[in-house]
Amino acid sequence: MALTRRIIPCLDIKDGRVVKGTHFEGLRDAGDPVELAARYNEQGADEVVFLDITASKENRGTILSVIERAADQLFLPLTVGGGIRSVDDIQQTLRAGADKVSINTSAVTDPSLIDRAAARFGTQCIVVAIDVRANPVMQEGKTPVVLADGREVWYEVVTMGGSHPTGIDAVRWAKEVEERGAGEILLTSMETDGTKEGFDIPITRAISEGVGIPVIASGGVGTLEHFYDGFVQGKADACLAASVFHYGEFTVRQVKEYLAARGIPVRL
Asked: Which Pfam families does the UniProt entry name for this protein (predicted)?
């Protein structure tokens, strides 16, 4: 039987509230995180991601009280990211009720954190989030990715909520995090985040084909077809979305029924 594909609502959290922006900017309030997560629980979401989006910039820890409230009320896997810098932070987050933790900036600044975390908690708990942006100037040693218009670019890893370019090749970094023990990759393209124009298919496919661990596509869903494209063209194992769920454009159930009707194996 084919592996079921997952649909994951993502809740970006700032000051204890869910927010949504475009290209990580212009944030609007979208509600209480636990109330929203409970709604997605009822709709049949496969898991929920909580991302404390300003924790790294503000140099503080993640939102343990929100995690505890959510874990008490939810019956689906909970992934938490934002401001997680150490093995101790990971332990606190898991202890508060998260099933997995997502590390991003801290993994780039200290790649050995992935090894240590995977060794201590198991690869299934460790998600490495990779935020990327297309760099149009090809450089020697970078992995070329062909866009829809035929141009070759390379994708650069960015950190600090997309504001800090690192010079790191995204495809190579994805392979490295897998080798270091990441159990999953959460891939967000800054090119498409919040645009509702669809996932960034070229980089999603390049990374999905380049690693053997699940890849979650993130950034840019606006239509039901975009989910389908993420799975079929992007080769993703899961599709993550935020605003289309928060503002009631689709329910998780609607997305899954649409996908099932088009032959994508989902848990209904």
From this structure: His_biosynth
Clarify whether 12 is annotated catalytic.
yes
- The SS3 of residue 6 is strand
- Indicate the pTM of the whole model: 0.93
Give 118-127 pLDDT, tens digit per residue. 999 999 999 9
- The residue annotated as part of the active site, out of 46, 52, 131, 237, is 131
Q: 6-262 sits in which CATH class?
A: alpha beta
The answer to whether 81 touches 102, Cβ cutoff 8 Å, is: yes
Q: Is 200 a catalytic residue?
A: no
Among 228, 174, 178, CA closest to 201 = 228
Q: Is the pLDDT of residue 24 over 60?
A: no
Question: Which residue is it, tokens 């690869």?
Answer: 123
Cα gap 182→199, rounded to integer Å:
22
